[in-house]
Fold:
Amino acid sequence: MFSYRHGFHAGNHADVLKHTVLVQVLEHLLQKDKPFWVIDTHAGGGLYDLTAGYAARSGEAASGIQALWPLRADPSTPEAVRAYLAQVAAVNHADTLQWYPGSPQLAAQMLREGDHLRLYELHPTESKLLEQHFASVRRGVSIQVADGFAGLRGVLPPPPRRGLVHIDPPYEVKDDYRHVVQTLKEAVPRFATGTYAIWYPEVARHEAQQLPAQLKRVAAALPKVDWLHATLRVKAAARDGVGLFGSGMFVINPPWTLYDRLAQALPWLVETLGEDDHAAYTLEAQQN
Structure:
């Protein structure tokens, strides 16, 4: 249904949506001088070589970052997409696209001294790659080889009482969908002022189709919680039910600027990345 290894999917259309949203949330948090934390529950390896290994074999980046890369300086490219592409460019040399930053690297290169990045990764190979990637970083980053769902309980609220919690499990097993919902039910009351960004795949699985409604019910049951839900679908679902045809981001306590930025970016992404007549987006929000 979906391969766990982040490198297999590095830079695909789902990463484009996910990381466009994350960059916007981080830019908003950076507008204030007060420090903040970024907590990533399923961090992956941190940085991926698009020319070798899993990413090269899958070729999924062709449906995402590789299609957008030539448009990074085009004035018609929406502001949110240009901001995302600028962060990808920060790990590459000149016009060459070789490296793709996962969410830990994106956060690390945007955070300031005094901010903190806390990463969880349970997969033995991915966690080793993550530790190697940040081996030279002595301050501002902490890594735990642990289940991020469980680890989150022990760190909320973070000391600055500001932050982003990124929840991005592999969804290889059905339990991941249930864990996402339960984690939010427990986490948001403990850190009510935090921003929570939940990514999920659009695949031919009942749990994936039901998750957005479940997340909305969680948010509705919490006092004074705003949410935003965005999806990007690039093609029709395969007849055999295999494969990723879209993805979604559900954001609790989103920046007030995020809706308008995505309202500009999503139609453009559908036009640019869409592969057939089923390509589409959704964008909805609830303010309390």
